[in-house]
Amino acid sequence: METAFTSPGHWYRGNLHMHSTESDGKLGPQEALTWYRERGYDFASLTDHRKTTDVSTFGDEGFLVIPGTELDCVDPERDVGYHIVGVGIKPFSQDDATRQGPGQALVDLITRHDGLAIMAHPYWLGQEPSDIMAVSGAVAVEVYNATCARPGKEFAMVHWDGLLDRGYRIWGVAADDAHNYVGDAGRGWVMVKAPELTEAAIRQALIEGRFYATQGPAIVDMRLVGDRIEVHSSPVQKIRFISNRGRGRTVEAEPGGAITAASFPAPPRGYVRVECIDHRGLRAWSQPLFFD
Ligand SMILES: [Zn+2]
Ligand SMILES: [Zn+2]
User: Is the same domain home to 61 and 111?
Assistant: First the structure.
């Protein structure tokens, strides 16, 4: 079972969702990307609303800039909205006709323009797992969106587990969705394992789930050893194995202490994903392992 941790390559830190003054962000494209570059990120995708901002002149050898966008629509039949991020998309702008209609049309537009579709902030949108299951072809869902912390809806673990429990396979990402670059940037990111820092390599790793999402804690290793899933992390308070329905376990440190490893028996079928939660309550999310 290959995972980010068993595949060769390097770890790259990236933000997959951010806005500039080209839509409703507070910083210009160059300043917004520099914000991440100066804080040690390896890559970022600028995802202005309903259009791609030209980022072709912004990247360099040490910092990969990936073009992106965030499309939106309201599906009148489901009575729900969709925001869908397109990472690595070819130059594109969304016309108003597609702002009414099914989320699938947006994923299809992104895919047709070579982008990877990420279902943005489902809790904030009031989506249910069935609204996401109505759409196929998205690579990931935002399990954490920093900007949605304002109304208290930054997490979407219940949505993600609802999908995985029903056999809908989708990866989880954490992203800032930065607009202000004060309080909403540097809060959630992905750590991607790729052979090199190129758009093609990052893209392939995202498709194959060779990454984890985090607000801070590091997942150092996660692999199948015999019939157990073994996880190693930075010092955290809890390591949690989450699986179908009521199956799973939380391993907790002694009060005031920390743990850096835990294990869990691999189930005969279904999925298992891991969360590592530190003493500040910050989380890292592994991708699910699937068992048949
Ligand atoms: Zn949005
Ligand atoms: Zn956004």
Answer: yes
